[in-house]
Design brief:
The complex is a heterodimer of chains A (about 240) and B (about 400). Chain A is α+β, with helices and mostly antiparallel strands. Chain A has seven helices and eleven strands. In chain A, a hairpin with a 5-residue loop joins strand 5 and strand 6. Chain A is elongated, with a radius of gyration of 21 Å. Chain A starts with a helix and ends in a 7-residue tail after the last strand. In chain A, about 40% of the residues are buried. Chain B has helices at about 20-40, 55-65, 70-75, 85, 95-125, 130-140, 150-180, 195-220, 225-260, 265-270, 275-300, 305-330, 330-335, 355-375; strands at about 5, 340-345. Helices cover about 70% and strands about 0% of the residues of chain B. Chain B has one domain. Classes of the chains: A alpha+beta (about 240), B mainly alpha (about 400). The interface of A and B includes residues 88 and 153 of A.
């Protein structure tokens, strides 16, 4: 086929526009990233959390989370003596603005518990989705195809941790993506990046060089609601028995 | 912002399943119950309930046609609901809804009604004129043979369809129970008994609805009520109600005795937020009272007028009770936090898409459809099946 210089000049911009259109429907490219080489999770070091709420604010900004809903939040526990079954828990505005000061004379212990989607390996939310809009990626992140989700909210009911909500504008399920758009580019999550004390650490469980392995070896670590057998991949160091 | 007591996970404060999701199991329950009543005559040869046979089938169809509407209205993106048919996620209990629904509608109910009415449809296609004639001719589907042999085949096939229909009706509603019962994250729902309780409460509600509809339609038509028929239905209502109540009590006693991690939270909820709808409405007024009334009717032969009045009251209370049960399951299951540390509140909006007015309209719609179906396919038997014991009231 002979193409003149004039035809080529016309064709090139058209091809560029067409290519851009094709790319618009595909995820952002992540060169040098192979999904099967990773298995993502997170480490939360409870003694290090100071309840500043930076993680919540960073998440809301990064992911355009609607007001009143949370992809991550921080709870403050107040446990008196041996009374593990009745902790006093607060999370004002998800802990985004921090917490009210503790009175000096109050007894018992106070600590903060950051929460987010546990990216469960056997996630009940994925199991119940009637159309498969919620799925687990080969690198272990539970995601939602929001162009496919019909907003039935069955997944919201199925999550034992209260991590999901129906987006008030998009009318589809929404939750933490573990900043998938960042981690596939070699970055950490917005919440981990914003944490001033390193209480939150993104962990690649398939990477033998990841410090998580050493940490898990040397610390008593727990997951939330282990009785739910969800294969949660958010690991908590120093988790108190009163936390639910 | 709903009122919150104690601590809720921040995303739990809003309820995601509204009154429309209360209507869904209520309506499918009425379908399953009405069908099972119809099958009493057809398969179990309970001749006394014959006057309600066709009415029960039409009632089941009218409610079944409305059953998907509350779900559609509830979805964030109803225009994507077809995905459940084209790309169902096979591990999801909910994904099977479309298939179970279509199976029950197209393979059971419509076929059974058509077979039962075929001779009538053929007759009406000849006796009517104008658009009605055209409609009936279409409804014959070209099958106009009404020879005794053809009718015998219709009858045998109809019997067979009903036989398939009983497990299908149980599947339709047991499956709805499974949607709730299989959510391990929610201790208020998570129970292997849930599908069974749903099936029995469905039978109770469907039987009560058809009994009431039969009595009301006879009254409207100024025709005598077949007392042997309503006595029999009331007796079956009592039996099944006792089984249903026993199952629910078994679940309750099991929860109280086992007293697992969720117990204190759920117990508090039942004694506060659900006190009226569960203890008062569902158990005392809606279950114990009708069981008592129906039991009394078994011990002495009261005058027909008294029996009719008692059956009407007992039937109405039963319908309220089953609605309350659906409410307590669906709404109750979202009022407490999965942290077991707090409670939220649910207020029904009035004019929103998931509000009270829409719900009322959705509950009126099946009766309107039923009215059209009755006009089109009259279910009345011209000669009563049994000698009448009383005249109209």
């Amino acid at each position: 086929m002979n193409i003149t210089r004039r035809q080529l000049l016309i064709l090139l911009p058209a091809a560029a526009i067409a290519w851009e259109h094709v790319l618009a429907g595909t995820p952002e490219s992540a060169p040098n990233y192979t999904m099967t080489e990773h298995w993502w999770g997170m480490l939360i070091d409870i003694p290090k959390c100071i309840g500043c709420g930076n993680c919540v604010a960073a998440c809301q900004k990064e992911n355009d989370v609607p007001d009143g809903f949370f992809r991550t939040w921080v709870e403050r526990y107040h446990v008196t003596d041996w009374n593990l079954t009745n902790p006093e828990v607060i999370s004002p505005d998800g802990g985004k603005e921090g917490f009210p000061a503790v009175k000096e004379d109050e007894n018992g212990k106070y600590f903060f518990v950051p929460k987010l989607c546990n990216h469960c390996a056997d996630s009940p939310c994925t199991q119940v989705c009637p159309v498969g809009a919620t799925f687990i990626t080969p690198d272990g992140v539970v995601l939602i195809d929001q162009k496919y989700c019909m907003g039935c909210a069955y997944c919201v009911q199925a999550c034992p941790y209260g991590c999901r909500y129906i987006h008030p504008v998009k009318h589809v399920a929404d939750k933490c993506t573990l900043c998938y758009h960042r981690i596939t580019k070699g970055l950490t999550t917005a919440c981990c990046e914003a944490c001033p004390t390193g209480a939150r650490q993104l962990a690649d469980l398939k990477n033998p060089k990841d410090p998580i392995h050493e940490f898990l070896k040397t610390h008593p670590v727990q997951i939330l609601k282990p009785q739910m057998a969800t294969g949660a991949k958010v690991f908590y160091n120093g988790l108190d028995g009163s936390v639910r | 912002m709903p009122h919150v007591e104690g601590f809720m996970y921040p995303n739990e404060i809003a309820l995601y399943w509204s009154i429309l999701i209360v209507l869904y199991p209520y309506i499918t329950g009425l379908v399953a119950g009405a069908f099972i009543l119809a099958s009493l005559e057809r398969v179990f040869r309970v001749e006394a309930v014959k006057p309600t046979y066709r009415l029960a089938l039409l009632t089941a169809l009218a409610f079944l046609l409305v059953a998907p509407l509350p779900l559609q209205l509830h979805l964030g993106h109803p225009e994507r609901s077809y995905e459940m048919y084209f790309t169902p996620h096979l591990t999801s209990a909910m994904a099977m809804f479309g298939f179970v629904y279509l199976w029950y509608l197209m393979a059971v109910l419509v076929v059974e009604i058509w077979l039962d009415y075929r001779a009538d449809i053929v007759a009406m296609s000849q006796s009517t004129t104008g658009w009605r004639r055209l409609l009936y001719r279409i409804m014959t589907l070209g099958s106009t043979n009404v020879s005794p042999r053809a009718l015998r085949i219709d009858d045998r096939l109809g019997w067979f369809i009903t036989l398939i229909g009983i497990p299908s009706a149980v599947l339709l509603h047991g499956y709805v129970g499974f949607i709730f019962g299989s959510v391990k994250a929610n201790p208020w729902w998570s129970s292997a008994l849930m599908p069974v309780v749903f099936i029995f409460s469905a039978m109770v509600s469907g039987i009560a609805a058809v009994m009431l509809l039969y009595m009301v339609s006879m009254k409207l038509r100024r025709e005598p009520i077949d007392m042997r028929c309503v006595d029999t239905i009331a007796r079956y209502l009592l039996y099944i109600f006792v089984i249903d109540f026993s199952l629910e009590m078994l679940d309750l006693i099991h929860r109280i005795y086992e007293a697992d991690a969720s117990f204190r939270s759920l117990d508090f909820m039942v004694h506060t937020k659900l006190y009226f709808s569960q203890i008062v409405l569902q158990i005392y007024i809606g279950t114990l009272l009708p069981i008592l009334l129906l039991t009394i009717m078994q011990f002495r032969k009261f005058a027909p007028a008294t029996r009719k009045a008692v059956y009407s009251v007992a039937g109405s209370l039963t319908l309220i009770s089953v609605f309350a049960m659906r409410w307590n399951v669906v709404i109750g299951g979202q009022l407490f936090s999965k942290s077991f540390l707090g409670y939220t509140t649910y207020k029904v909006a009035l004019v929103t898409r998931e509000g009270l007015l829409v719900s009322i309209a959705l509950m009126i719609l099946p009766f309107f459809i039923l009215w059209i179906l009755i006009k089109l396919l009259p279910p009345w038997i011209t000669k009563p099946a049994a000698p009448l014991e009383s005249s109209t009231t």
